């Protein structure tokens, strides 16, 4: 009888658990980025930004542009990670790890810079300039308008930079605009108004005339009961102080998962090289 040969299947050096964990997580990132990118492109299309380049003056403050940039970067990252893991492509995995490392170092640098400059007013100055641009161009871009309305009404419950008077820098709300017939002159946007008890639909005209001299005298009402008098810069500082632990936890969590992604990619690359060395 011929001798029976026993064949032993060669074990792979590549961890399937590591490979598909990296692939699945990056597919989720890739799909999320695709949604964000699509929303940004749709918003630009609605504003006809692709044909009207002259509107790009304040592009850095355009929420749709920010979504496009974030979506593009995250899309590339997720694509490199998922395809690199699935196809066991060491070049893509290397690019993925480098990309994540650059992002991680940038985040650490930004956090360090923010900590160093927090007492020098640099961050406050940047926030002030950004809000000033939002207020000045409030009616020119619907996305910027919606963003500052969300900041004032839903997030910080504030009005203006240091207070309601800052809305004088907008042509529609400036008190001198009464002469040209602006109904919003000497007023503030509806997002500055406090919500009334049991109010379901907010009155969009609640901020009309509230900054007119003597407006509340005949009505016997106080400004603070109608609109927010606290500026958004002060409200933002207070919000950060009250939520510092949560912010720090989220930042550390994001960095932890980035480090985990770098380690997974590097370990998978090492496994692939080890497997290839067997073939040679």
UniProtKB/TrEMBL annotation:
Its main location: membrane. Keywords: Disulfide bond, Membrane, Transmembrane, Transmembrane helix. It is found in: Membrane. CDD domains: TM4SF9_like_LEL (cd03159). One of its GO terms (cellular component) is plasma membrane. It comes from the Eukaryota. The chain crosses the membrane at residues 20-44, 64-86, 93-117, 244-268. The keyword Membrane applies. InterPro entries: Tetraspanin/Peripherin, Tetraspanin_animals, Tetraspanin_EC2_sf. It is a multi-pass membrane protein. Disulfide bonds join 159-175. Belongs to the tetraspanin (TM4SF) family. This is Tetraspanin. It comes from Drosophila hydei (Fruit fly). The lineage of its organism: Eukaryota, Metazoa, Ecdysozoa, Arthropoda, Hexapoda. The gene is LOC111602258.
């Amino acid at each position: 009888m011929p001798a029976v040969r026993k064949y032993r299947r060669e074990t792979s050096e590549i961890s399937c658990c590591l490979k598909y964990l990296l692939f699945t997580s990056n597919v989720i990132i890739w799909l999320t980025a695709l949604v964000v990118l699509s929303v940004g492109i749709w918003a630009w299309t609605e504003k006809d930004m692709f044909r009207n380049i002259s509107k790009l003056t304040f592009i850095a403050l355009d929420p749709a542009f920010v979504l496009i940039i974030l979506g593009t970067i995250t899309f590339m990252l997720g694509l490199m990670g998922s395809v690199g893991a699935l196809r066991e492509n060491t070049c893509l995995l290397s690019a993925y790890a480098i990309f994540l490392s650059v992002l991680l170092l940038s985040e650490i640098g930004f956090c360090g810079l923010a900590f160093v400059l927090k007492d020098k007013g640099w961050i406050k100055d940047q926030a002030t300039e950004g809000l000033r641009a939002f207020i000045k161009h409030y009616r020119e871009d619907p996305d910027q308008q919606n963003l500052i309305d969300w900041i004032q009404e839903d997030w910080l419950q504030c009005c203006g930079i240091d207070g309601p008077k800052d809305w004088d820098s907008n042509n529609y709300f400036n008190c001198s605009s009464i002469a040209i017939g602006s109904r919003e002159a000497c007023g503030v946007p509806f997002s500055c108004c406090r919500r009334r008890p049991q109010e379901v639909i907010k009155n969009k005209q609640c901020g009309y005339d509230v900054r007119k001299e003597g407006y509340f005298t005949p009505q016997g009402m106080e400004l603070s009961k109608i609109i927010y008098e606290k500026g958004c810069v002060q409200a933002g500082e207070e919000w950060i102080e009250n939520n510092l632990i949560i912010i720090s936890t989220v930042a550390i969590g994001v960095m932890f998962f980035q480090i985990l992604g770098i380690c997974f990619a590097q370990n998978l690359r090492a496994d692939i090289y080890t497997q290839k060395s067997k073939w040679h």
